[in-house]
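call fold(seq) -> tokens
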Amino acid sequence: MLGLMMAAALATTPATGSTATTSVATADPAVAGLPEGYRLVWADEFETAGAPDPAKWGYDTVANRTGWYNEELQYYSANRLENAEVRDGKLVITARRERLESASDFGGQDYTSARLVTRDLHSWTYGFISTRAKLPCGLGSWPAIWMLSQGGGWPIGGEIDIMEHVAQEPTKIYGSLHSQAFNHSIGTGQTGSTDIATACGAFHDYQIHWTPQRIDFLVDGTPFYGVDNDNSGLREHWPFNTPFYLILNVAVGGTWGGAEGVDPSVFPQAMEIDYVRVYQTGE
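ret:
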């Protein structure tokens, strides 16, 4: 994957025109790289053990029977602690080698995992979003922290990949934007990367700073890639001016995650998430 528009500096233009419908968090913790003037508007600190908070997270299971995208190998379960559980102050999303043949929507998969979404619950337009996570590195794991349009299909609605990681590149972190005009399926995806030596062994903050003019990608407050709005006014180019919802998942295999194979012996593999925080300017 090739980055088409590299950036050397973090854009600091305040986000305006927010259309987010969120509840204000009770605390106001800061994170590295937070721009001046931003306040916390939504967060999950994963403090209550058990299933993820249903007021904040739902489960995406729509393609279990037909098979998931990009030739992925997992079945995404719902309300199953073996795949998504809050414990010890963290959300743990675990991909396992197992077949849930008793599930009504079972599609023949040899692995299970979870795909959590804030769709139809919480969405945001612009802001600074930070998710602190520790990633799995077993061959075939493909964890992601990302966003899709609340109101549009793919690719016309757009996609913001805050963090993607594949086990065959254990230190590499990717950030990407996809639209109808710019996406990986036609070889025009806008993607950048950075090397984090401890991506698999330590927690890091995976972040975006999203304004009407630009989206920057950061790790631990340090920007590594950015894309400017070309101001063409074409939704095909820049659909990133409408509400987007968050997605947390661990895929297995697929055209990218399984490019060098899947090692069944390394599973289970888990992504641990310490918190998810959304900040906006309030303008």
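Residues 1-27 have pLDDT under 50 and may be disordered.
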